[in-house]
Design goal:
Blueprint: H1 3-9, H2 15-21, E1 26-30, H3 37-50, E2 55-59, H4 61-65, H5 67-73, E3 79-81, H6 86-98, E4 108-112, E5 115-118, H7 127-132, H8 144-147, E6 169-170, E7 174-175, H9 188-195, E8 201-202, H10 205-219, E9 223-226, H11 236-249, E10 254-258, H12 265-274, E11 280-282, H13 290-296, H14 303-307
Parallel strand pairs: 1-2, 2-3, 6-9, 9-10, 10-11
Antiparallel strand pairs: 3-4, 4-5, 7-8
């Protein structure tokens, strides 16, 4: 459920009432970006006040970074999954339903007699995990037909989003990074600290094309966004994915691809074959000053290399 979409459709929508009316006993909030922090925690507080028996969990990068602080200051948050959460959240729900011990749930912060307990961050997703996960299933999302037509900024003054064409959609290619750019909370050191991730994982080419086809055929989405360039010195796994996309779609889909390093000829050739001529590569040197770029951007390049 996307709270912004629900409030767009019905300005008097209240999540606490929705939880009560639907007799929900477990709710998980994504606290990925720091700018969400106030809204997520206050929404959780209101839900708990109206539904004292509901279990509330948080996940995402920001809640992972500040997990102990959040658990100490906000007693209405029952659980935080620190790091990667696909397997842990399934185990958590299963454990709650069976009323068994929470000690076996990896990556979990929880309370026992008001004492905060942290189960070690022992789970990170490997290649097989990422290939088998179903990252986004629109059929399970309430009001996806409206969600898919909303822009990057949801404009509450717009009369009817349902008349908009379907927007682009992001597709996950993998997880992890070898860089440590100054401004990024998702670099190697950060992911090691938060998620115990010390390696890059890639989805199989087949799982990526299956997801694209599902979104294309089931929901008329033909523009796809990719933002994964974790090791510019070796893009072999990415090129293999692009080759599979080319084979499956014959260059008929449009893409936007955000890169951390400069593209090489092998990548550009694979990109050209995989996507339509309307597709775009996004590159940012970040700094005009080459010395600053070299110091703070992990996959830096000179101005002359960038222009060329």
């Amino acid at each position: 459920i996307h709270l912004g979409i629900e409030k767009y459709i019905n300005k008097s929508f209240k999540l606490s009432e929705y939880v009560k009316n639907n007799k929900i006993n477990f709710i998980a909030f994504s606290l990925q970006w720091h700018s969400q922090s106030y809204d997520v925690i206050e929404t959780a507080r209101i839900v708990k006040e109206s539904n004292p028996n509901v279990y509330i969990a948080l996940g995402g990068f920001t809640s992972s970074f500040f997990a102990e602080e959040i658990m100490q200051n906000y007693p209405f948050i029952d659980y935080i999954i620190k790091g990667e959460g696909e397997i842990p959240i399934v185990k958590l729900v299963d454990t709650i339903n069976k009323k068994s011990s929470l000690k076996s749930v990896p990556n979990l912060l929880w309370r026992e007699n008001s004492k905060i307990i942290f189960n070690d961050t022992t789970y990170t997703a490997g290649n097989n995990d990422l290939s088998n996960f179903e990252f986004f299933k629109p059929d399970r999302m309430i009001n996806y037909d409206i969600y898919s037509k909303a822009g990057y900024i949801l404009d509450y003054s717009e009369n009817s989003l349902s008349k908009n064409p379907s927007e682009s959609h992001g597709v996950t290619l993998g997880r992890g990074c070898l860089g440590n750019c100054l401004w990024c909370g998702g670099g190697f050191n950060a992911q090691k600290k938060v998620a115990n991730r010390t390696y890059i994982s890639y989805r199989s080419p087949k799982s990526v094309t299956e997801e694209i086809r599902s979104l294309q055929q089931g929901h008329n989405i033909n523009i796809f966004r990719f933002s994964f360039d974790p090791n510019p010195k070796d893009r072999t796994p990415i090129i293999e994915i692009l080759n599979e996309i080319s084979k499956e779609f014959n260059g008929a889909i449009t893409a936007g691809y955000n890169m951390d390093g400069l593209p090489d000829k092998d990548f550009l050739n694979a990109f050209k074959l995989a996507f339509s001529d309307n597709s775009t590569l996004l590159l940012s040197p970040v700094f005009a000053d080459e010395d600053l770029r070299k110091k703070y951007k992990s996959f830096a390049y000179s101005n002359s290399e960038f222009e060329e």
